[in-house]
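Narrative summary of target 7.
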Amino acid sequence: MTAPAGADHSSVRPRRWQIRLADLIVLVLAVGVSAGIARGARDAWGSRLIPNNASTVNSASITLATWRGSPVPWERTAGLVFEVTGVFLIVILARTVFGLLRRGRPGDGGRVVSFIWAVAWRSLAVAILLGFVADEFSVLRVDFARETDMGMQQPGWDINYRARQNLLPVCGALAMVGLALGMGAGAFLDERPSRRRRPTWLFVPLAGLFAVLISVWLYGYSIIAQLVLIALEAVSNSTRWHNHAGPGLSARLVAAGLDAFVAFVSCVALGVVVAGDFERARRGEPWATIRAGRFFRLILLLATIGAGAYVTGITIPAMHPCLAQGIVQILDLGLIVATFSAVGLFALGLAARSVVPRPTQEKAAWHFWLSGLLRYGLMLVLLLSALKHLPASSQLPSGISPSVGRVIDIVGHAQAWLWGLLPYPVVIVLTACLEPDLLQWLIAIVFSTILVVELAIHPTALDDAPFDAIWGSTRSTIEITWLTVALTVICLVAIPILFVAGQALLHVRLGVADWMISGWPT
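Modeled conformation, tokenized:
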């Protein structure tokens, strides 16, 4: 049927939320692959059976009477979610590469280089994500019975397997968040340009102090490492290997804590400078424009690297040589490379999104309201989780002022009253979700999923992504390189520092009562 002559088609608006057949096929393919991955995972959620005596149970004599139920570690559930999220991100990247190739190579020489770079980094990102999906699938396809059997056949295999089980989801989450930010996602993070500068000099030391407190008080891993150190010291003192006089374990841990404190100060100082540079990049202001500023940043970066190398190569072996050897055996080369790559990719994506100017377009008021709700909602969740683990006034040491105990009691009564207003099933679910072991994975899952869904709904990767403009100018290249290297160094150096500081402070916490009577270790 032909349209009537003279009809005006200029006012006809195209229908929104349309999907092309090729996109639908790719989406169905991603869903199918994700379903296959989920079916192939073993012990990914719920509870699993653990033998009562794993050292005497083998695969040939397993009966239901010798097993007990235990919840599946949250690392496995998070790993499966990140694996599925990685599949969708691979599909988005592959679809973008095919779109660029279909559009063809431009004729201009400068644009040819940009075209090659756009295809190259997307292809490299697909390869990295495929490697993560394959590694995580190899971990999740092993159930606990297989893990127990392999651990008895190959001594030390189960320890390395558990390290991979714990670290691979963290590496996958960091890599996917960095890629998504570098592809242009993260619109929900945008906010109105503020007139006042953020007090970055205050946020970084508070974050470092919070990390140290977590490594000492909230997690059981520090207690396990402390028991391992004490056991190693006892074995060394009872054998001929330890036949020389030297400082005891307490003195060595106190000295290690001092080394970690010096490295911590250097790392925090670099963090304050880098946080200020990120804030200036976000506001579009110049920074490090003079030679003295660049020289100061370089010296601070080298000092932090040297402090981290000293803590890793000298301080940790001084705590106990067997401890350093055990860490090297647990963290094989593959895990070390995966950790370095994931942290570097996360830092690169964050730096590219901060330095590369984003399209200036008017945003609705609800966008900023939603951004603020997510930001302050996250702070409220973290506050509730911290208050949930607030000790009772009867658990405080005798030297604490009674007014502190009264304040803690008032806060505890207020929490109990507020929780009493909610239905009991809701309280049970929220209480479980506020546990640190689960909360950290929930935050990572929600954050990475939002970024990938945003890319799927608004395929900004077909346009100029922040990664495409890394080599846009000499200044942007220098700024992105500095922010990436500095943030990567901070994250990697903080790992041994927090480990040593946590062990030293935990040892002081456990032995301070005896030391005040018998004297401090020298």
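DSSP finds 16 helices and two strands in the chain.
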